[in-house]
Amino acid sequence: MSSGGGKRKQRHEEHEEHVNHERWLVSYADMLTLLFVLFVVLYSMSDVNMKKFAQLASGLSSGFGAQSVAFQGQTGPMDGSGNSAEIVQIDPGANPGDGKAGSANLTAQQKEAVKAAMAAESRAQASKNAQAAAKEAEDLKKIENKISDALAKQKLLDSVKFTIDRRGLVVTVLTNEVVFAGNRADLQPGGRKILDAIAPTLAKLPNKIEVDGNTNQLKARTTFYPSGWELSAARASTTVRYLVARGLAKDRMSAVGFSDTKPLIDPSDPRSITMNRRVDVVVLTTLTAEQAALLPAASGADSKLHTGETSEQAGKRAQSDTGNTDTPSESGTKPATTTHD
Fold this sequence. Notes:
Elements: H1 24-46, H2 50-63, H3 69-72, H4 108-153, E1 160-165, E2 168-174, H5 189-203, E3 209-214, H6 228-245, E4 253-257, H7 272-275, E5 278-284, H8 289-292, H9 295-299, E6 306-307, H10 311-325
Parallel strand pairs: 3-4
Antiparallel strand pairs: 1-2, 1-6, 2-5, 3-5
Helix pairs in contact: 4-5
């Protein structure tokens, strides 16, 4: 020990700064504050005071030198304009907060304008539908020509009839012991020959195909089926299976049995015994229901039951129609042709 006897001065220890673990509370509080403000703003926006809105609209329009022209649907002259511009209000609620709706606030002139606009839109849509139906009828006729070509090569054109109705192109195969035997749903050799002729054309189409089975109106008892319903459905199903085996996609096909509920001709006609007992192969149209309803009118005579027209026959008919409507010009060239319904 030293003679001074004094104590040695102890060295001061440096400690690490204490970490504040509650710092996150500041950010959390800020976030809660912002969320609160957000919901307050959203609530205030959702609660619209219609009276104050009307006052605001009136104030804004007055500030621009007009008396609520844009908001009330009135007419207002602009500086330098000799005519007044009329705003026809179609949307209900001309005066906010007055409790009126619909066309109650429209003047007679405005109502007439709305009516005229709706009529013009209706005429435009009707014209569009008519054009679509005419184009579809033309396309279905071309399908008929191709099917007729195949049938004519096999000398089977007289065994099939055609119709264009609102469903599409109906290819009617008259059974008459050629396609199906009496009370049977097994295809006869003659029926297979007919289906073999039309299947390649049907397989190339994008349209869906519906096969309808029909029986005649004779009250004869069905031997192998409980009723004509089962017999007609079985014949339709047999036809569908045969066409699928010839290349038609399953998801395009459907089979329907109608028994004797859809006669082709009047049951009192002696021909009904053979003609009403048939299978219809329907090439379904892709038109909308409104457009498809115009198909019979657009197809003209083809909407009636008729024998198929081959491509050659169609070409000759077109040339004949052209010759009847054209007259040679002085220069030797033909003028533009016109077609008649």
